[in-house]
Amino acid sequence: MRLTYLYHSGFAVQAQGVTVVIDYWHDTVEQKSATHTAPEQEMGWLHQQLRHTSDALYVLSSHFHPDHFNPEVLTWRDAHPEIHYLFSSDIARHRRAPRDAAIYLHKGDCYRDEQLQVKAFGSTDVGISFLIDLQGVRLFHAGDLNNWHWSEESTPEEIRKAEGDYLAELRDLKREAPAVDVALFPVDRRMGRDYMRGATQFVEAIKTSTFVPMHFSEDYEGGNAFQPIAEAHGCRFIRLTRRGEATEI
């Protein structure tokens, strides 16, 4: 099974006969438009793959924020009529996609077919996070689940509330999944000095075999700074250094 980093919180997972795209925002190179007509080598890794794949294709989006959901994904149906869209329900609620365009999930909902299982867990921002069981591998994509607070700006009460809300969501996840094979989780130093606190609490609560940072745009240094903490908790840490980087999981 191969994991390819697209951009920000976007990844593609390729298994035997199945490709899962999660929180697509941009491809590995910038597109000029949704009807991109540049030469294939300029289209980016994902678009090149989608043009030629015969895999069963699943597209997951955790919430409506534009850095996690790009409506361009709905045009992919033209080339892949059997594509499966699994979106957080807020995407329809905010009218980012038609109500008949996807299977919409709330926290606690589960989608299952002969290829994979996806269960929706909570978020501390909007939308959901994803627990994905695919060909014997359990992956967790956090979406915008994190201990979101800014120590330099938030009040003590705001910090306590953010932490309490986040730890409650972690407890819900741990009841179902005390261990995961792969965690894709925000490590975003725009939050300030405590930006790795949520990721640390995650690996303390959930036994994680492989940890992959995300939600850092081009700040690879900031995302990769979590490596010593992850490894101290027994995780294999995947350092990301460029868009389109792939690793076997």
**Individual helix count:** 6
Helix content: 10-25%
Query: Looking at the structure, what is the overall shape?
Result: globular
Order of helices and strands: EEEHEEHEEEEEHEHEHHEE
Q: What's the CATH superfamily, by name?
A: Ribonuclease Z/Hydroxyacylglutathione hydrolase-like
Number of domains: 1
Can you name the CATH architecture? 4-Layer Sandwich
Overall structural class, as computed from helix and strand content, comes to alpha/beta
What is the CATH topology? Metallo-beta-lactamase, Chain A
Explain this structure.
By secondary structure, the chain is α/β, with parallel strands linked by helices. It has one domain (2-248): Ribonuclease Z/Hydroxyacylglutathione hydrolase-like (Metallo-beta-lactamase, Chain A, 4-Layer Sandwich), CATH 3.60.15.10. The protein contains six helices and 14 strands. The protein has a seven-stranded mixed sheet. The protein has a seven-stranded mixed sheet with strand order 7-8-9-10-11-12-13. Helix 3 (156-176) packs parallel to helix 4 (197-205).
In short:
The chain is an alpha/beta fold. Helices cover 22% and strands 29% of the residues.
Chain-wise SSE layout:
Blueprint: E1 2-7, E2 10-15, E3 18-22, H1 45-52, E4 56-61, E5 84-88, H2 89-93, E6 103-105, E7 110-112, E8 116-121, E9 129-134, E10 137-141, H3 156-176, E11 179-186, H4 197-205, E12 207-214, H5 220-224, H6 227-232, E13 236-237, E14 246-248
Parallel strand pairs: 3-4, 4-5, 5-6, 10-11, 11-12, 12-13
Antiparallel strand pairs: 1-2, 1-14, 2-3, 7-8, 8-9, 9-10
Helix pairs in contact: 3-4
